[in-house]
Design a protein that fits this description.
Largest sheet: 7 strands, mixed
Number of strands: 7
Strand content: 15-25%
Structural class: alpha/beta
Strand order of the largest sheet: 1-4-3-2-5-6-7
Helix content: 25-40%
Low-confidence stretches: none
Distance between the termini: 42 Å
Shape: globular
Radius of gyration: 17 Å
């Protein structure tokens, strides 16, 4: 894959079917070699019942889509972690990250940190969910980070936006307070 030249390529779509371990070390090399594919400006991660989709917009007209087909939020997060580790050079440049949740109700607290860690340059994080549970869970995970952890996860973050903030603001503000307070002490404070 890394040896293929595709100067006219606008969209790259990689779909993985029920494979527990992903081995795609040449995908980032191929993307970096493609002339139209530049470091991404934004990434969108969509969680659905049967798959998770990661759209990376590499320029105005080019995009990269990764889609591991798997059910269950825990498997989706595990799949994303494996992919993000191998493709970290792609995701580490995005300045906007949009997390969208359209899956079943969240019955337990999940660890979202593996999904957030690769995005070292993200300055704005948008979190949206149809029923607010996802947004509250993201706020909880960020709020549990201590001073050093708060500085390492999304180190460039300055704005955190929740689509249903009006409905969940009391809970989210309370959960995020330790994270926001820790970031106020750093070079990159965060506004909600």
């Amino acid at each position: 894959m890394a040896r293929i030249d595709a100067p006219s390529l606008d969209v790259l779509y990689l779909r993985f079917f029920s494979q527990p371990v992903f081995d795609i070390p040449q995908a980032p090399q191929f993307i970096h070699r493609a002339e139209k594919f530049k470091p991404p400006s934004e990434a969108h991660v969509y969680f659905f019942c049967d798959a998770v989709s990661v759209f990376v917009f590499l320029s105005r007209d080019t995009s990269f889509l990764l889609q591991p087909q798997c059910t269950g939020l825990d498997r989706q997060l595990s799949s994303l972690e494996q992919i993000f580790i191998q493709c970290s050079t792609i995701f580490s440049h995005a300045v906007e990250l949009h997390l969208h949740y359209g899956g079943p109700q969240i019955n337990q607290s999940m660890s979202w940190l593996g999904c957030l860690r690769p995005f070292n340059a993200v300055q704005i994080l948008y979190v949206s969910d149809g029923n607010s549970e996802f947004e509250v869970d993201i706020a909880r995970v960020l709020g549990e980070l201590d001073g050093e952890g708060a500085a390492k996860v999304l180190p460039m973050l300055h704005t955190l936006t929740f689509s249903r903030f009006y409905f969940i603001r009391r809970k989210v503000i309370r959960l995020l307070k330790p994270f926001v307070d820790a970031r106020q002490q750093s070079v990159h404070p965060v506004a909600v």
